[in-house]
Amino acid sequence: MRFGFSTAGESHGPAEVTLVHGVPAGLGLIADDVNGDLARRQKGYGRGGRQKIEKDEVEFLGGVRHGYTLGSPVAMLVRNRDYANWEDRMSPDPPQGSNSVKKVTLPRPGHADLAGMQKYAFDDLRNVLERSSARETTARVAAGGVARKLLAEFGIRISSAVYVIGAASFDKERAALLASKADESEVRCPDEEATERMKAEIDAARHARDALGGEFVVVAEGCPPGLGSYVDWRDKLDAKLAHALMSINAIKGVEVGMGFGVASRRSSEVQDEIVLEDGRLSRTSNRLGGLEGGMTNGEPVVVAAAMKPISTIARALRTVDLSTYEPARAFRERADSCAVPAAAVVGEAMVAIVLAEAFLEKFGHDNMTDIRAAHAAYTNRLRDEVIRRSAAGKDARGRA
Ligand SMILES: Cc1cc2nc3c(=O)[nH]c(=O)nc-3n(C[C@H](O)[C@H](O)[C@H](O)COP(=O)(O)O)c2cc1C
Questions:
Q1: In a domain, 270, yes or no
Q2: What is the per-residue pLDDT for 99?
């Protein structure tokens, strides 16, 4: 079965649940492999009060035995600690006695609230907002932890960096190059001076009872060439990465490599020339973000995403009360004033998941022993071809 995942769970329900299928047998996997990323998702300057309540930790419910995967679906649970405060409103059981729960009827602009109520015929928008909340991205980060562990076995490392928050920005290319240092910054920007400017932006927006978005870049180093395919549109890796990143709450745009910048440049300023360097085919630049023809080309994969500002703001926006159809102000639930650093960690998880799927598609699904052998055979073939053919080329030139 193809590598992939599903999630279940409501923001203030008992837990976030992740089911990852297509995980090969024999992959070393312990809770700490996932918990580190769960903790990174909870960080970031500008987060709201929820992160102080939660301390996300995974429990394996299936698919792992004595620290190794079994080839069966990996089932993971992350408990919502806040559920203790919400049990009356979020219990799966019918309400007890005459205790009816107050309905929420003030849809928030920028959220799934209004169309969700219309689509699913609800009269209480809690039924929509609980699932449409970005709390669900916790479950994605858990799936990403499994994907990342698999990729790390083959030297593939994924990192992210924030380079725009509101009007404060840092150079995107430099952010991508320095992404492995981003954990040191409260806003995931690998530059101290830019970090301070971004924090000041967040403070100013919060002071104005408003919120901010921004941009982040995700970098995957160590990918072999040929993940994904040009043969069928469904297998094009750039398209899959765009889908995966766009599926994250509040992401409104995705760029591959230099992204929209390609449109206004000449071809010679966009393509990455091919050279032989140290007995290896490589590129003089990586403007196209390591992706050509829907496949990895051996250079780092570089993708970026733009996040819109948080929709729920203290200066509540206009709406209509759906119980009376009178003008009103939007419902407010505790909210972040900036979640771009957290979204970047979710972006890493989504990129890891897409790459893991493509990796296993190329090298097999069943068990790590066979996958290691297939990966070694492929990388050896590519290396040997360079040695053999360049020696043959030298011979031919010598004879001429
Ligand atoms: C990590 C993360 C945290 C978020 N936190 C909030 C929040 O606290 N308040 C809010 O209104 N939106 C928040 N959002 C954005 C909303 O979830 C998102 O705008 C909403 O679900 C509507 O989806 P759309 O913007 O993709 O159309 C967050 C998004 C992410 C990725």
A1: yes
A2: 66
How many contiguous H segments (helices) and E segments (strands) does the chain have? 11, 17
What domain count does the chain have? Answer: 1
Looking at residue 22, the DSSP 8-state letter turns out to be S
Considering only residues 47 and 106, tell me which one the structure prediction assigns the higher pLDDT: 106
In a domain, 21, yes or no: yes
| Section 176-183 average pLDDT | 96
Over range 265-270, report the average pLDDT.
Answer: 97
Q: Closest ligand 1 atom to the C-alpha of 336?
A: 8
User: How confident is the model at residue 98, as a pLDDT?
Assistant: 65
Q: Identify the residue whose C-alpha is closest to ligand 1 atom 20.
A: 111
> What's the whole-number mean pLDDT along residues 251-255?
98
Residue 280 resides in a domain: yes
Q: How many CB atoms lie within 10 A of CB 200?
A: 13
> Where in the sequence is the domain holding 321, given as residue range(s)?
4-91+103-369
| Amino acid present at 340 | V
Using a 6 Å CB cutoff, which residues line ligand 1?
A: 48, 110-112, 132-134, 137, 248-250, 308, 310-312, 335-336, 339, 342-343, 346
- 164 and 197 Cβ atoms separated by less than 8 Å: no
One-letter amino acid at 383 equals: R
In a domain, 18, yes or no: yes
Q: What is the C-alpha separation between 345 and 47, in angstroms, rounded? A: 14
Residue 213: CATH number of its domain: 3.60.150.10
Query: Within 13 A of 133's CA, how many CA atoms are on the CB side?
Result: 23
Question: What is the reported pLDDT for 334?
Answer: 73
Give me the pLDDT at residue 101, please. Answer: 85
Q: How far apart (Å, rounded) are the C-alpha atoms in residues 128 and 136?
A: 13
Ligand 1 atom at minimal distance to the Cα of residue 313: 11
Burial of 68 per CB tally in 10 Å (0-12, 13-18, 19+): middle
Ligand 1 center to residue 216 CA distance, Å?
15
**CB distance 67 to 28 below 8 Å:** yes
Helix 31-42 / helix 340-363 crossing angle, nearest 10 deg: 150
Check residue 53 and give its pLDDT: 83
- DSSP 8-state assignment for residue 62: E
Substitution candidate for ligand 1 out of 38, 249, 252, 337 with most atoms within 8 A of CB: 249
Q: Output the pTM of the full model.
A: 0.97
Q: Are 175 and 189 in contact (CB under 8 A)?
A: yes
